[in-house]
Amino acid sequence: MNSRFEHFIPYAFVSHDLIWNLIPADPSFNSPKNDRLPRIEDYFDGFYNL
Predict the structure, then answer these.
(1) Angle value at C-alpha 1, between 47 and 16, nearest 5 degrees
(2) Do 21 and 9 contact (CB within 8 A), yes or no?
(3) Which of 10, 11, 18, 20 has the greatest CB tally within 10 Å of its CB?
């Protein structure tokens, strides 16, 4: 995996780069998400565990 830090909640919603909103993620995670919120059912547990 070629990870880099991505915004879990899109920058368009929170307008900051605080650490709680940045997660290591493959760029392919961010491409389909764009400025939409991720489906909480799919990602929250992993986000919380980080």
Answers:
(1) 45
(2) yes
(3) 10
Other beta carbons within 10 angstroms of residue 5's beta carbon come to: 13
Phi, psi of 46 (to 5 degrees): -65, -40
Residue 3 — pLDDT band, cuts 50, 70, 90? Answer: low
Q: Residue 18: which pLDDT band, with cuts at 50, 70 and 90?
A: very high
Query: Tokens 């919603």 belong to which residue?
Result: 13
Distance CA 30, CA 43 (A): 13
Angle at 22 between CA 18 and CA 28, to 5 degrees: 150
